[in-house]
Amino acid sequence: MLDNVADTISKMHEINVSGVSFSMDDFGTGYSSLQYLKLLPLDQIKIDQSFVRDIVTDPNDAAIVQTIIAMAEILGFDVIAEGVENEAQREFLDLRGCPAFQGYLFSRPVSIEQFEDLLRQGV
Description:
Layout: H1 5-17, E1 23-27, H2 34-39, E2 44-47, H3 49-52, H4 59-75, E3 78-81, H5 87-95, E4 100-101, H6 112-121
Parallel strand pairs: 1-2, 2-3, 3-4
């Protein structure tokens, strides 16, 4: 992707027309540069768990997460937080406008069959 960003963007636009949405995983780490937010046809960003882990005890992580949520809202992206492991993290995120979460608070990774069973049970 990084070798030919223009070609990647063109292909993403073509795929996007058919109804596929794109999410940037692990936002705030590695290659998830702010520059890509301007260039890529994204619908969602996922806040990396390394920032979520200590949001209730580390003011720096809290500030970073709040900034990502605010930026996502201004840019029109949905936002989801990765690595939510306790109710305090979930509440912090929810109160600041991040209504979507994934992590061990909800479930450990499961097979597709187990996931379908959970859905049928309304969990």
